[in-house]
Amino acid sequence: MSIISKAVRKPHRMFERSLNLYRLSRNGDRISRSIQQSVRAALKCSLTPEEEYWIDRVENLRTEMNSSTMQITRMDYGARNHDSNLKLDEMRAGVEVTDTLGHISQVASKPSFWCLLLFKLIRTIQPDSCIEMGTAVGLSAACQAAALTLNGHGSLVSLEGAASLADIARNNFQQLGLDSVTITVGNFQDTLADVLAARRPVDFVFIDGHHDEHATLAYFEQILPFLGETALLVFDDITWSEGMRRAWNTIAGDKRVGVTVDLGLVGLCIIDNSIIRHRNFNIPLH
Ligand SMILES: C[S@@+](CC[C@H](N)C(=O)[O-])C[C@H]1O[C@@H](n2cnc3c(N)ncnc32)[C@H](O)[C@@H]1O
């Protein structure tokens, strides 16, 4: 692409993003408005001093985790590669992997911008019952729990298959003084049902593990009956593989969903029966 066409396209993309964010905010429902506010605040990194205090602490923890040379052996129950095409039974059996903590943290943890967006979504939506699928070393969970702490209500249960990672994450929450988050250890297929039953009505779910088309669609179906009247589902890595793209397209086309927002890497899915017109917004952020 020539320099001149790059120069024209960038402002055009930013204009389109602003316009679509504006259209989203005018959709008429509370969560669409909250998403618009959260995305704008995350893009501008607009934080109150109290928010900045927590985000800085989580980011300092990220630096510490990313540089750790400690060897960790963990069970991996996920899809493993973009094109692995494993059967659900093979993933369920898992595989033992050894890596440095630094490598796991760098590869698995959501980057700072997306953690900030999760934080802002929880600050604006003010959910009570939150679930995360996929804890790893606990960085995204720490951001969500910090937002709940500032909100003064609500709690998060984070699900993780690898007991060794859950121990690290638990230790991190303790170090940060976060008591609004707990971890349930085990394969999602074994733990999700009980956690959903205990947490209903669920307001906010971050699905960031087991990036497989069939597993993602199965979790979507499993979660739906346990949601509150309004809820937000956040799907990570919707472009990670062709299967994840297909799973997202199926979810985006499902008429039980009020609004979906495709942010590029992450897909947001609003459940709200008061939304009459099913709509899909495309607002790539990166
Ligand atoms: C991408 S990482 C989560 C990162 C974390 N949300 C963050 O941003 O800080 C995904 C995690 O999900 C876990 N996981 C994947 N498939 C799973 C399954 N079927 N059951 C339980 N845990 C699983 C992995 O062990 C891994 O730690």
Query: Which spans have pLDDT < 50 for at least 5 consecutive residues?
Result: none
In percent, how much strand structure appears in the residues? Answer: 15-25%
Query: What is the number of E strands?
Result: 10
Specify Rg, calculated over alpha carbons. 18 Å
CATH level-four homologous superfamily name: Vaccinia Virus protein VP39
Quote the average pLDDT.
95
- The helix fraction, in percent, is 40-55%
Summarize the helix and strand pattern as letters.
Answer: HHHEHEHHEHEHEHEHEHEEE
What does the main sheet amount to? Answer: 8 strands, mixed
Q: State the secondary-structure class.
A: alpha/beta
Shape: globular
Bound molecules: S-adenosylmethionine
Strand order of the largest sheet: 5-4-3-6-7-9-8-10
SSE order and pairing:
Layout: H1 3-25, H2 30-44, H3 49-66, E1 71-76, H4 88-93, E2 95-100, H5 101-108, H6 112-125, E3 129-133, H7 139-151, E4 155-160, H8 163-176, E5 181-185, H9 188-199, E6 202-207, H10 213-223, E7 227-235, H11 242-253, E8 259-262, E9 267-272, E10 279-282
Parallel strand pairs: 3-4, 3-6, 4-5, 6-7, 8-10
Antiparallel strand pairs: 1-2, 7-9, 8-9
Helix pairs in contact: 1-2, 2-6, 3-5, 3-7, 6-7, 10-11
Bound molecules: S-adenosylmethionine.
Molecular structure report:
The protein is α/β, with parallel strands linked by helices and 286 residues long. The protein has one domain: Vaccinia Virus protein VP39 (Rossmann fold, 3-Layer(aba) Sandwich). It is 51% helix and 20% strand. It is built from eleven helices and ten strands. It has an eight-stranded mixed sheet, sandwiched between helices. Strands 1-2 form a two-stranded antiparallel ribbon. α7 links the parallel β3 and β4. α3 crosses α5 and α6 runs parallel beside α7. The chain is globular and about 45 Å long. The two termini are 18 Å apart. The model has no long low-confidence stretch (mean pLDDT 95). The structure holds S-adenosylmethionine. The site of S-adenosylmethionine (SAM) has 21 residues, from α7 and β4. The site of S-adenosylmethionine has 21 residues, from α7 and β4.
